[in-house]
Known about the structure:
The complex is a heterodimer of chains A (256) and B (267). Chain A has 256 residues and is an alpha/beta fold. Chain A has two domains: 3-79 and 156-252, P-loop containing nucleotide triphosphate hydrolases (Rossmann fold); 88-154, no CATH class. In chain A, 35% of the residues lie in helices and 24% in strands. Chain A contains nine helices and ten strands. In chain A, the strands form two sheets. In chain A, strands 6-7-8-3-9-10 form a six-stranded mixed β-sheet, sandwiched between helices. A four-stranded antiparallel β-sheet of chain A has the order 2-1-4-5, with helices on one face. In chain A, α4 crosses α5 and α7 (197-203) packs across α9 (238-252). Chain B has a domain at 79-261: MetI-like fold, CATH 1.10.3720.10. The radius of gyration of chain B is 23 Å and the shape is flat. Bound molecules: adenosine-5'-triphosphate and magnesium ion. Adenosine-5'-triphosphate (ATP) binds at residues 13, 15, 22, 24, 42, 44-50, 195, 213 of chain A.
Amino acid sequence: MEGLVIRDLSKIYYGIYTGQDVAAIEDVSLEIGKGEFVAILGPSGCGKTTLLNMVAGFIPPTQGEILLNGRRIQGPGPDRGVVFQSFALFPWKTVMDNVAFGLKMRGVSKEERERVAREYVALVGLEGFEYRYPHELSGGMQQRVGVARVLANKPDLLLMDEPFASVDAQTRMTLQEELTRIWEDRQPTILFVTHDVEEAVFLANRVVVLSPRPGRVRETVEVSLRRPRTWQRLIEDLEYKGLVARVLGLVRTPVS
Amino acid sequence: MRRPLLPALRRLLTHSVVQGAGPFALLVLLWTLVAALEIYPRNFFPGPLEVLRAFAGLVYKGVLPTYLQDSVTRLAVGAGVGVLVGIPLGLLIGLHPASYRFFWPLIIFFQAIGDIAWLPILLIWFGFTLTTMTFIIVYTVIFPMIFNAALGVRTVPMEMIRAAQSLGATRWRILGEVIIPGALPNIITGLRTGLGYGWRALIAAEIIVGTSGIGFMMFDARRSGSVVEMILGMIVLGVLWYLVDAGMLRPAERATIERWGLVRQAP
Lengths: 256, 267
Ligand SMILES: Nc1ncnc2c1ncn2[C@@H]1O[C@H](COP(=O)(O)OP(=O)(O)OP(=O)(O)O)[C@@H](O)[C@H]1O
Ligand SMILES: [Mg+2]
């Protein structure tokens, strides 16, 4: 099948200092079709990052399997682009060179790299900042580079771990709108991790709510809000408000 | 008429060469003063002028340029080997757990022996030769470089390496594009510390082993009781190191780790 399939996934950490096992994720099964935008929502410490890291191939699962387009995930690869909460840009590379990094690793010619990088820098609204270094940019601008860097590499799946959590509220709303616009234009497949209910409902087509640790899939909520979505419209939208209230209820009620 | 002079004066005063010379001017002034008071006999505590005269004399005779060249060449050779071996070894230890387990105990063991402790056996094996001196310098330079390069590897954030991996970088590309630039602040610290130690070890080696070089000149001056030449030697050491710092290390820092925002700019 095209897309991502997660089957009976569990992760148990062994604490070397405590000598105790910690179950972070338990029996999570999930399918994400090509072109879908799915948000994973859950309280702090419920294993969201753990789940994402397993899909990215950074850590091995304890049990279960993950398939992308029918192939089993063995380790990190350019078919899955990751946007980090901490941006993880390369400080010694300019905006252009950060965005062109994946292409360079694939051996794309210099002219082609330059052309594609310029296109994606423009897509995230950073024209005029091509030759700046990351430390010369604001947090919001840095994460735009982070997004452009993975988009330019055209991955089959975009993994985003609370990418907008460390910017101010105003910038966050702008970035959310920009990401929505990019998805509406190009329909990349996105797995987006967050603990922000409004963010999840605003962005995604489907919100998967996890239980507190060990994280299990508690419920899946379809979000069929009309697109294009903007904050200006949704903030007053009754359907949006209703969905937020419902998801919030799911997150807050204790597991029976 | 006074107004246009002021900015020019300020520009002169803030010029980097003038600013760099400022502290030294004060030092020389103090020295002149103490020497002029003649608390001590002149040939026991000579002033700047005597030293300058000795400088001119030694340059004229060609002794100082030759000695300087000998010392600098030895340092350059020692430092070169230290950089070529120490930094890769440090990176290897930082990156490769099995190498760490193998090399670390050996490195700690040999670090304890120190450069001067090698001298007796080196003099038996190689005599009063360049080999002995090169060994001493390489030995001193290499440890700070190994330790700092190894530490630098570990300071590279895990997420940066993961970002590179999921952008399709192979292990070797990650080394060149992420690990080495990320470790650069520590590598430069290692270079600075290593070269500084090396410079000191060289002078010590020249004093004991030498037949030429700045260290030899200073020790030789003891026989003729020439305090002037000793002070001259000390000044040469300081000036040379200052030039290495201002001409090589600082520009390298400015162009890399300061430009990239890895460290704040030096004032
Ligand atoms: N390397 C590790 N070793 C041991 N335990 C770990 C490790 N990483 C995470 N854990 C534990 O696993 C659980 C899930 O962690 P994870 O980082 O996946 O949570 P999260 O949902 O991303 O939280 P947050 O919203 O705060 O980012 C936590 O209880 C954490 O303490
Ligand atoms: Mg997390």
